[in-house]
Design a protein that fits this description.
Length: about 500
């Protein structure tokens, strides 16, 4: 199992705390010890010098050798010795103790003082110093100074000694205190780490719970960015990601619903003509059908299968354009010419339906596919002629609107209901009255119009004109006129 942030922080903090405490303690204790030893040596030095100087100045050389002189000296040192922590001694030329600030012990210490290196060097006229470690572990410092007459003749030595016992015990005390402090430090570290780890981990835990809820399907989950800059950034990124995923999921669901609606719409549209064909065919299978009915049923079969073919074609066209299988081969076309020719082709049908059709206006050239643009015009005019009353009129008006070439188809029909306006371009959408007519269109004409226009980079809108009747306006991106001599396909 991987450790948590808390454990890692704790380990790091403890390591830092212990290492730095140990390092600092070692450094300071060493410094302290050498400082104390230096101070002690200085002190002994001063004392030994003082005694030597005093001796040299105050006494004639024989005072060291006479019993009376020794007694006075010894008396003086014992008085001082009661109040100081070091031991001061005066030695004669042979290294024998003449006076001592501490009464000699029974063991007769210092019996062979002249053997000591520092004493020998003092008796030879030079300062001597030494450090000894006694069997019980105490360090003792010794400093010896020569005592000389005014003529420079060495007649003895002053000898100062002090044990470092007090320094050692001080250090021991200090170490104990240090251990306590280290303990306290560790406790504080624990507490601080705990708080810090919680504070650091909380936003991460929140984030984690948000992410896991998201992963389990709750796509509405968002987290509040808080904590350090990193966790905030993480939370913000998560929210962006969540938005994207949620959007994609919604899109996917919409697409799914659209597809299944499309399939059921198509099945529904297939049913009416198939039922009609089947009914007619079944009747025709009977023995005695009179010739008049036979012709009627056969014509039903022909017209309904024609409708089925048209449905298949329309769906194929939509699929080609919307599915984007192969971009439309767009080239420069003379929009006016293309529109006029499709209107001409429709004139016989208009005559049959009893409506008049007029074309007016000029429009810039556009990038387009001639057959598709003709289909747009044909679908719009077909719709217009269906809703126009007998004797009605349809106007196709071309023009320019800023960067657009426009083609508007206006009719004198009833117009489009407000509630249908937003839907007429949807697949299979028909307004109520035309839906009632079973033999009407499939409601694919305008979806095809829109798909073609969009594939041309244009747009189409439906509106009701002020004079009554519907107006469909197609906008295609206009091209700048070619320099003289160029020609567009028409
Ligand atoms: N000029 C118009 N005036 C009034 N309503 C219209 C007009 N053009 C279209 N509509 C409404 O919009 C609906 C959709 O038109 P669309 O051309 O897509 O389908 P359709 O004409 O019913 O069938 P199809 O074109 O597939 O044969 C029509 O059913 C009709 O209700
Ligand atoms: Mg139509």
């Amino acid at each position: 199992m991987r450790s948590t942030i808390r454990t890692r922080l704790l380990a790091a903090f403890l390591a830092i705390a212990v290492l730095s405490a140990a390092g600092l303690s070692y450094y300071f204790l060493t410094e302290l010890e050498s400082f104390a030893l230096r101070k002690l040596e200085e002190r002994l030095d001063t004392q030994a010098r003082l005694v030597a100087a005093f001796r040299s100045a105050a006494w004639e050389e024989k005072s060291l050798t006479t019993a009376q002189g020794r007694a006075i000296l010894d008396e003086a040192l014992s008085v001082v010795g009661a109040d100081i922590t070091s031991r001061l001694r005066v030695l004669d030329r042979s290294g024998t103790v003449v006076a001592d600030s501490t009464p000699p012990t029974a063991a007769g210490d210092g019996a062979d003082l002249h053997e000591r290196q520092e004493v020998r060097s003092a008796l030879a006229g030079k300062r001597g110093a030494n450090t000894r470690i006694s069997p019980d572990g105490r360090v003792t410092l010794y400093v010896a100074y020569p005592i000389a007459t005014a003529r420079g003749e060495v007649i003895g030595a002053s000898y100062a000694a002090a044990s470092t016992f007090s320094i050692r015990s001080l250090l021991r005390d200090y170490r104990t205190r240090l251990a306590w402090m280290a303990g306290a430090f560790v406790l504080v570290t624990f507490a601080v780490t705990e708080i810090l780890a919680r504070w650091l981990a909380r936003p991460l835990l929140e984030l984690e719970s948000g992410v896991s809820r998201f992963a389990h399907g709750d796509h509405g989950v968002r987290v509040t960015p808080r904590g350090s800059r990193e966790t905030r950034a993480l939370a913000e990124s998560f929210n962006i990601l969540a938005d994207e995923v949620e959007g994609a999921m919604t899109e996917l669901r919409t697409e799914e619903r659209r597809k299944s609606r499309f399939v059921s719409d198509v099945s529904h549209e297939l049913r009416t003509p198939l039922t009609a064909i089947r009914g007619a065919a079944e009747t025709l299978m009977e023995e005695d059908v009179d010739p008049e009915d036979r012709r009627r049923f056969l014509s039903t079969i022909v017209s309904e299968s024609g409708r089925l073919t048209r449905l298949a074609n329309d769906l194929l066209i939509l699929q080609r354009i919307e599915g984007g299988t192969g971009e439309l081969p767009l080239r420069r076309i003379d929009l006016v010419g293309v529109v006029r020719r499709s209107v001409e082709a429709l004139e016989p049908l208009m005559e049959e339906r009893g409506v008049t059709l007029t074309v007016e206006g000029e429009a810039p050239e556009v990038l387009g596919d001639v057959d598709r643009v003709q289909q747009v015009v044909a679908n719009l005019i077909d719709n217009a002629s269906r809703v126009s009353p007998a004797g009605g009129s349809i106007a196709v008006v071309m023009g320019r609107d800023e960067r657009w070439a426009t083609v508007a188809v206006r009719d004198s029909g009833p117009g489009i209901d407000e509630q249908d306006l937003g839907h007429v371009f949807e697949r299979f959408y028909r307004s109520q009255p035309s839906r009632a007519r079973s033999s009407g269109g499939f409601g694919l004409g305008l979806s095809i119009v829109k798909a073609i226009v969009v594939a041309h980079g244009g747009k189409v809108e439906a509106a009701n004109s002020a004079e009554g009747g519907a107006a469909f306006t197609v906008r295609l991106p206009a091209l700048e006129p070619l320099p003289a001599g160029g020609a567009a396909e028409a």
